[in-house]
Amino acid sequence: MAKVSLRALNERESGIVVKIDAEPQLRRHLTEMGFDPGSIITVINKGMAGLMVVQIKGCCRVAVSREMAGQIYVDKLEEEFRPGPCGHRRGRRGMGRRHRWW
Amino acid sequence: MTGKKEFPVFALAGNPNTGKTTVFNALTGTHQKIGNWPGATVEKKSGRLRKKLSGKNSARIVDLPGTYSLSAYTQEELIARNFVVEEEPDVVVDVVDASNLERNLYLAVQLKELGANLVIALNMVDIAHRRGYKIDAKALSELIGCPVVPLVADKEEGIEELVEVAFLAAGGKAASRQISVNYGKDLEGKIEELGERISRKSPSAAEKYGARWAAVKLLEKDADIIQKVQTQDKGICDARLSDFEREMEEKTGEPVDITIASRRYGFINGIVKTVIEKSPEERIIRSDQIDRIVTNPLLGVPLFLLVMYSLFQFVFITGEPLMGLMEAGVGLSGSFLGEALSASKAPAWFSELILVALVDGVGNVLIFLPNILLLFLGIAVLEDTGYMARAAFVMSRVMQKIGLHGKSFIPLVLGFGCNVPAVMAARTLKNKDDRLLTILVNPLVPCAARMEVFVFLAGAFFAPTIAGQVVFSLMLLSFLLIAAMGLLFRRFIASETKQPFVMELPPYHVPTFKGIFLHMWQRTKVFVQKAGTFIFLVAVIMWFLASYPQGAEYGGSESYIGMAGHMLEPLFQPLGFDWKGIVALLFGFLAKEVVISAFGILYSVADEAALTDTLATVWTPLQAYVFMAFTLIYVPCIATIAVIKQETNSWKWAGFTIFYSTVLAWLIAFIVLQLGLALGYG
C-alpha cells in the first residue's frame, strides 16, 4: 500500500483515507462529511481540469476540486472497483429488473 | 427561551439533499413563513402543522439549515445548534436519507449527544430499497435510542405516522434513551476530568449544554464553546490541556478532534452494520453516467451555457406577453384610479401622490412580476433536479478566479434580466460569504432597464454602425468590474478564506410539481411583500422631493430634487454633468428606465425622437458615453436596494452597495472621460 494524494488516483481506483492536510476547521468539516480516516474513497469521474467526483461512505457522491484532492491522502487499494453495466449488479442476484435511476 | 409555549415546536434537522424541504412542505402545506435567521444571511423557514395532519393538536415547525454536523464550522451549523440549545424545541426531527445512512447518522448522533428529544425520519426508503438496501428500522431505533419512522416524503407516505410519533415524543411518551459514544480510554478520562471542572466552575455552560458535551467540544477545539466556557473559567484551556492534546496526537498520529470524529463514525459503523441487513454491491449508477457528460471537459461548459440560455429565453420570451398584460393592467388601473380620484374631489396633491407612488413606483416593479415568477420557476426546476450542483461544479474554476463561487454564476446571469430576482437567486448559495459577495457584485450586471437607457442613448449619439459596439463595450466594462470587485471584496470583506471546492452531488431526481410550485410561490411572495412596501415609501419620498416646495414645476429647477441637482453640480463638474443630468440620475434611483423619461420632463419634450435631437445639441458623444458608464455602475434602483436589505438582513450592506457603487461609478466615469479627452474625442 502506498500513501498518495487523492489526485494520483484514476477513475475507478479506491483508497483508504489516511490524512487530510488542511487547516483545522476545514479538516474537521471534511472528516465529518465522511472523509474520516479509515473510510474508503472511490474515484467515480475525473472531469474538468482535475475536478473529480468521488464516492464516500459507500454511496454518496462528492465533487472535489484539484486543490482539495491534493490535500487528501489515501492508501491506494490494489483491487479496482469494477462495476457492472449500469442498472445491473455484478452478480445479478436478487431482483433482476432494471432499476429506475432516481 | 423557556416559558410556556402555546404549541409544541418541532425542529427539522438533516444533511443537505435528504429531502428535508419536502418533509417540511408535507408537514406545513402552504402555511409557511420565509425569512432570515436573526442577523444572518441564511434562509429561515417556519410554519404551522397542517390541520389535516394535526387533528386537535397543533405544532409549529421550524426548518433548520441543512448541515452535516453541529460543529459550528459554518454559520448554518451554529444556527442549527443554537436553536436546539437555546430555543429548546420540543422535538427535533432529523431527516435521514435511507440510502446514505452512515453519513446521515453522524448528525443524528450529535443531536442525541446534545440531548435533543430526537425522532429520526428515515426518508426515501423506496429509493434505498430499489438500490438494494434493506434496513431494520426497529433495530436502528433501539440502537440509537429514539423513534425511527420510515418515510417517502415525495409521496407523503409515512407523514401521518411521523406526526403521531412526534406528538408522542413531545409528550415524553416515545421510546427514548441516552446514548453515549465511547471515545476510548485516554479521551474518556480527560472528558470526565474536564466535565467535572465545567460543572464546578462554569455551571451555566454545564446546564445549558451538559458538562460532558461541553467537555467533548472543548477537545474538539470548538471556538464558540471555548469562548462560552472561558467567560466563567478563564484557565480552562491551560498548558495541561494542550500537553494532553500533544501527547494524544503523538500516540494516535492525528489531531484530537479528528480522533473524536473518527470514534463517532466508529460508533455509527457499529450501528449501521447491525441495521443494514442487505446492502447493494457498489456500482456506477445512472446519475454517474449522466455526470460523465455533464461534467465532461469538452461538453460541460457548452451544455451549461445552453441551459442558461434556455432559462433566459424561457423567462424573457414567455414573460414578454405576460409583462405586456401586466403593463396594460397597471396602466388601466392607473387611469381608472386617476378618474376616480378626480371624480372624488380629492386634493390635487393627493391624487398626484397616489398616481406617482402607487402607479409609477409600485406599478413599475409589479410589471416585472411575471418574469420574476417564471425565473423562480426555472431555478426551482434546476435546483430540484440536482442540475444546480453540477452547474456550480462546472463553473467553479472560472468563478473562483474572480473570488466567487461556482453557484454565483447563475445569479449573475439572471442580473441581465433584473437584479431583483438575481439577488434573491443568491439564496442557492449556502455559504454566507459566497452569498454576500454574489449579492454585492450583482448590481454591476446591467439589467434590462439599464440596457434600455444604453440603447436609447447609444442610438441618439452614435451612428447605427457603431451603436451596438458602444453597448457591447459597456457590457465588457461590467464584466471587468465584476471580476475586480469580486476579488476586492473577497480580499477585504469575506472573513473566511477561499475554500477549496467540496460539494455533494445529489443523484438526479424528478422533482415533484408541489415542491417546485411551493419553491416558486414562497420566493415570489417574499419579493412582493417586502420589496413592495419599501418601494412605495421611496416613491412617496421621490414624489415629494420632485413636487415641492409649493408651486415648483414637477422635477424642475425650483423643486427640492432640482435644488439637490444644483447643489451636487460641483461634485459632478469633473464628469461634465449639469444639474439636469444629475436630476435624471436621481430619478434613476426609482427605476433605471425612468432616466429617459426624466430627461423628457427636464427638457420639456414629449416624444423620444424630439428628445434625441435636443440631447444631441447639449452633449457630445463622449459625454453621453460617460453618462452611460455612470448609469451602468451607480446606485442600483430602489427595488434592488430593498431586496439587498432584505436578503442580507442589514441596512449596512444595502447602504454599502449604494456607497461603493456610486464612488466606483464616479471614478470609472472620470477615467473614461479623461481617456476620451486624451484620445481626442469630445
Order of helices and strands of chain A: EEHEEEHE
> Based on the structure given, which CATH architecture of the domain at 9-170 in chain B is correct?
3-Layer(aba) Sandwich
Tell me the strand percentage band of chain B.
Answer: 5-15%
- Straight-line N-to-C gap of chain B: 67 Å
What CATH architecture of chain A do you see? Roll
Described by the principal axes of the CA atoms, the overall outline of chain B is: elongated
The CATH superfamily of chain A appears as Ferrous iron transport protein A (FeoA)
Please give the largest β-sheet of chain B.
7 strands, mixed
Helix content of chain A: 10-25%
Mean pLDDT of chain A: 77
CATH domain class name of chain A: Mainly Beta
- Which percent bin holds the helix content of chain B? 55-70%
- Report the mean per-residue pLDDT of chain B as an integer: 84
Number of discrete helical segments of chain A:
2
